[in-house]
Amino acid sequence: MLLAVLAGNAVYFVLMPYLPPVARHAPYRLDFGLLVDFLFCVAVLAIVKKVSRWGTADGRKGDTT
Using N-to-C axis directions, what is the helix angle for 2-15 and 32-52, rounded to 10°? Predict the structure, then answer.
């Protein structure tokens, strides 16, 4: 999960200058930009989980039966 938070925030802050003003987070405020940042982290988490399951046939780790 730490990887998802760090990577999601990195992607968000790289893309932030290109986002509409409403989607930009202002420090020390609860705003829509904070939600957009959170969604980036959730998207990266979903990607990490999907990639980690590619190694198994049915998505379960450690089951060799």
Answer: 130
Q: Give the model's pLDDT for residue 7.
A: 95
Helix-strand-coil split of the chain, %, nearest 5: 65, 0, 35
- Alpha-carbon distance 9 to 26, whole Å? 14
Greatest Cα-to-Cα distance within the chain, rounded to the nearest angstrom = 53
Give yes or no for a contact between 23 and 32, defined as CB atoms under 8 angstroms apart: yes
Supply 58's token pair.
């049915």
Judged by DSSP in three states, 1 sits in coil
- In the predicted model, is pLDDT for residue 12 greater than 80? yes
